[in-house]
Amino acid sequence: MRLTDAAADRVKALMAGSATGVGGLRVGVKKGGCAGMEYTMEFVAEPARFDEVVEDKGVKLFIDAKAVLYLLGTEMDFVTDKLASKFVFNNPNQTSACGCGESVEIAPAKPEMLGAG
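Above: the chain's sequence. Below: its structure in token form.
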């Protein structure tokens, strides 16, 4: 998993403004929404026991162990338009999304993706 410059800058700004003890951003997926899965993010002091730790552009990402195969090759971006600012996941494993953009359908990475980060 990697970050765009905009996403890294935004995560750093949010971390700087949060309470002390934030070690990184934990990213995962959970079941939910009309398409089946939703991305999750939370600031945490340290990774959970089996989290994959990735550092990109000065940001520590802790990838939930249950989500690693769903997030291989994913790029997280931060976009701003006239009505909203949000994090966007550009995930090659995503097979579809709901119309409102709140949930996605994601397949585990194929064996040839296992070398990708």
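The chain has one domain: 2-15+24-109.
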